[in-house]
Specification:
There is one protein chain. By secondary structure, the protein is mainly alpha-helical. Helix content is 86%, strand content 0%. The protein has one domain. The chain is built from six helices and no strands.
């Protein structure tokens, strides 16, 4: 299914996340210096891109999916929130002078799986039940912090 215009900004951000996911999964094989470098990149991406991305989803997209009801939407929302929580925890485990290579690998693996889940299931469900239209209206209003964040992306 073609991506709804309201979801394009979120979808575009997934490309960078997939690149980071691959680097994180490979870093452990390259040694401690690469783990430190990629962990630093992961933390910067988490702070500057992933957290704002999660906020848009959690503040607008997921509540709209819950309000829309429908078969499976509650499970999609629960999975999204759980994976966001896990990514928050893994990012916190990377913050320090000697980041854990295994935590970085798990972060990369979960991030890649999460992006694919959002693209293949969450965004498809949002489009199918008209939630993407509600997101477009929220972004068009320009009044919310979320709208400003998306326009900056």
């Amino acid at each position: 299914m073609k991506r709804h215009p309201a979801l394009l900004a979120l979808s575009r951000e997934h490309h960078g996340a997939l690149s980071l996911s691959l680097a994180a999964r490979r870093a452990i094989q390259a040694g401690p210096a690469e783990v430190r470098a990629v962990a630093g990149r992961a933390l910067a991406c988490y702070r500057d891109e992933l957290r704002p991305h999660f906020a848009v989803e959690e503040d607008v997209l997921l509540p709209a999916l819950v309000a829309a009801g429908g078969t499976g939407n509650a499970a999609l929302v629960a999975r999204t929130l759980d994976e966001h929580r896990q990514l928050h925890e893994l990012a916190a485990a990377l913050d320090g002078p000697s980041p854990d290579g295994e935590a970085l690998r798990r972060f990369g693996e979960l991030l890649g799986d999460h992006v694919r889940f959002e693209e293949r299931e969450l965004f498809e469900a949002a489009q199918a039940c008209g939630v993407a239209d509600a997101l477009a209206a929220e972004l068009d209003s320009g009044a919310s912090r979320i709208a400003r964040a998306c326009r900056m992306a």
